[in-house]
Task: structure prediction
Amino acid sequence: MIFTYNKIVKNKNQIDFALKNIDVQLKKRFEALPNLVAVLKKYMSHEKGIFEKIAELRVAIQNSKNRNEQLEAEQELSHLLGGINLTVENYPELKTNESVIHLQRSINEYAEQISASQRAYNGAVLSYNDSITVFPNNIVAKLFGFSKEEYISVIANEEERRNPDLNAIL
Result:
């Protein structure tokens, strides 16, 4: 029984660890946004709306009341940052600028790191959920009040899986 309890606790701790890693990646991107925006402003002064939207989303992320609100704002920010790469494609003089190339790479790197952290979190949730639902672990889990954890799903429904309307964003 002690072994089973300790295994469940260890799996639960892995979830907490993975969640903190997601927060680290999101914070890293969040803190880099002002620098990314500064580069964009220099080359895209006519695209004022994009900077205002990034600022609004940063405030929404900071003021989010729960994890779901924060994830929704982060998702919208991810769509917006993805749209920046497409916008740059429309301006050939920007595509060759070293700063803009670095910006595109940075945006892609942040997205990949966040995605990897989310996969690690979901893997930890899977291990934990498995550990509390298999017999005889489920008896120990019930006895100590362990319950299933939810997976992180940045895209909650099929409507959100569609490509963003960049004309509306920009």
